[in-house]
Design goal:
The protein is mainly alpha-helical and 73 residues long. It is built from four helices and no strands.
Length: 73
Amino acid sequence: KENASPAPVDVLTPQQKEERLKYIMVKLRDTPDDSFVNFIACCLEWDPTKRLTPEQGLRHEWILKGLPQNVLI
């Protein structure tokens, strides 16, 4: 199909999911944004007591730097 959207993740095979994850990781290594990598690492923390809460996530520096000024006042 022309201009077809990528398949939703839930219809990908395990191999396709792995390839997509590898692609994302390569892109992160190519142009790392330390605050983004930290945000993702905090979101993926295995221990739920150490993982970011949604409120903490919204106050993370990576989220805040992408927002227009005074949006959270």
